[in-house]
Amino acid sequence: MRTKHFFNPLTFTALLFAAAWFSACGPKNPTTATVGDAASKVYVAPGSYDEFYNIVSGGFNGQVSVYGLPSGRLLRIIPVFSQFAENGWGYSEETKPMLNTSHGFVPWDDSHHIALSTTNGEHDGKWAFVNANNTPRIARINLKTFRTEEIIEIPNSSGNHSSPFITENSEYAVAGTRFSYPMDGQGKNPDVAISTYKENFKGTVSFVSINPENGRMGIGFQVLLPGVNFDLSRCGRGPSHDWFFFSCYNTEQANTLLEVNASQKDKDFIMAVNWKKCEEYAKAGKGRKEQVRYAHNVYSDETHTGTSTIENEVIVLDPKELKDIVYFMPCPKSPHGCDVDPTGQYIVGSGKLAAVIPVFSFDKIQKAIADRNFEAEYEGIPVLKYDAVLHGEVQKPGLGPLHTEFDGKGNAYTSFFVSSEIVKWDIAKLQVLDRVPTYYSIGHLCVPGGPTRKPHGKYVIAYNKITKDRYLPTGPELTQSAQLYDISGDKMKLLLDFPTTGEPHYAEAIPASLVQPNSLKIFKIEENKHPYVAKGEKEAKVVREGNKVHVYMTSIRSHFTPDNIEGVKLGDEVYFHVTNLEQDWDVPHGFAVKGSNNSEILIMPGETCTLKWVPDRVGVVPIYCTDFCSALHQEMQGYVRVSPAGSNVPLKWTTGGTPEANNF
Amino acid sequence: MKAYTLLFALFCLVLSNCAEAPGTPSAASSGAPVVAGGQENVKDDVSQKDVVKVAVGSPDHTTLVKAVTAAELVTALSNAGPFTVFAPTNAAFDKLPAGTVSQLLEPGKKADLQDILQYHVAVAVFKPEMLRDGQVISMANGGNITIGVKDGKITVNGTANVIASVPASNGIVHVIDGVLLPK
Description:
With about 675 residues, chain A is mainly beta.
């Protein structure tokens, strides 16, 4: 570590006085909570790169954002489930199909958890998966383009919260129902009284298959389960590779005032699912085929277009009949986090209302299953004896444990919402080693590689729910935030606060070296297979098909071709298919038309994007580039003449003169 | 258009004189590295070549490249543009009175050299098809050139012939057989 002394002693003393003076009205404890050399540990010099990509869910913004670590610099917001007028995601003709569902167009969602693809339980840098809570979906982001490439809807599901956590070789991503609801076995949600929860409501967990070559998803199979709330989940690792673990609460099966009614029992469950066995049974035809409806949307980088297909069938496995695929393990007080350590031996349940953290032993679970050491059945599913599967409990770790990550050195890091802190503890010895406060009210936390066999360690990042006085206030609605802690020593050290977009829930961090070399610079124009591409200005044209006017437009520094269009009439639908002819890294063009009820679009080099525009009045309407592209960006503009319906103005298009002179 | 293909074939030389590019992962350095230049240092073997890389890749333009470097115009011409560059060949420079080039390359003459070179650059893209006989184009140094078009042949100021045109990512390079001298 190089150190530089920026301040002379006099300045330093003055600063100390200043700090003391301001601490009276500033946030409590922040300056004392950071270490002296924190700034140098997070400083990434101009032109230098961060060591990690931090891929962060956006919560209620329905997106994913990407930060550099340790600097906390925001690198990109990736639109996923929510429309993004800034670049046209969900507005352009090509991306509208990506937001199609069995409910029709759902242009928003609530995205909570990230799962990065793994091979042999280690990050491989190929894809990021993210869940949609509201209208159950899983999206796959390609880490070459940092774009959403696929979204699959989950049938027989409500509130897709325990998702999209993945198995060690990215064989499956999971999706569990937070909200159980009436299921009639025919893919329908029948009209029954809400008070019939215990009788009619069911839950499911779905295993979404992932093609190892191209990442394509499909609903592999579903497991039909009792009506409870499934919360979070993790795959097994190493010896527990074949298993998946889910936390469940509301085993009381309350349908109202869950705040009270779902906290009656001392213990709810961690559910262990043998997914390998499920897969076997599904392949052997032991599941029931159920007719359902779900959208499966795929975006192609060749056609630059998304397509949405409605699919109709899933395989449902019933653990009441297939006795050896699902087991419950009692877990204190409404478990939330359900995390598996890097060795795959320990499963940590975090009861939101529990005074202990129970740690289950995979070996003991296997023994209890083999010995049929059950204490009861819950709706036909065996419940293993708590003491028989328990490795031990961390006593009085803090208040309101939520989530646990690991450093690969035998330590666990658990977030505590109620007591607003991170607690480091020894997994084998179940002893608390250190604790640090978070500002304020931490939810999820992330150690780079924390949910893999080989954590990269170095930092833990807290994703907080409340910021209050941590930043300059911006009215009632404040920024969300993350905090970076150094975990390289025995004691955790706060290094940095950084604001985040949306509300961060779960996040993962991956070494830049696994992602950066594959990042795509441009789309090759010769590989563009968009049906309305113009691969050069000579291919630019305007074609009328009834009341639809298709403009095959090109953009290049610093003009559109064509940039003068006449013959559009009121009542027409105009489709601007804009191809960016640039083959130069980081030279996007934008496209906008006055009065667009849609959005603008940004077109990357070599790409074609389509903006639909329905003119609402007669007149000459400007079009222009919205992405500052060159010294003559402000000259990158044109006009569309809109004539009355029935007008005989002929269809005509030019750039730089008459059509005859326009053979550039 | 044959000249296009010919020139392209020559452009297989890889730019090798880059300074240390920015962007090495460094979590905790305490000072900003000072890297001379700008976008010319970006490591990118995927994108189309910009006007500077087009010139660098041409064995016929070593004098021009040397001059552009001495005049510290590499960074500007590696930026977004858009540019039209009239690029005199080595032979064109050789036609100047003996000693002119070496004199211009002297440190004390940088302003003169910049003036001459900027007289070869327009901020806009003029494809050959867009050029008209008698067309006046305003150049980066503030001067004007006059285009001549006769029998499909393009001349500049009546003194230089356009012998090839090469599209670049940030504009276009017209290869000329004479050096343009600001009026």
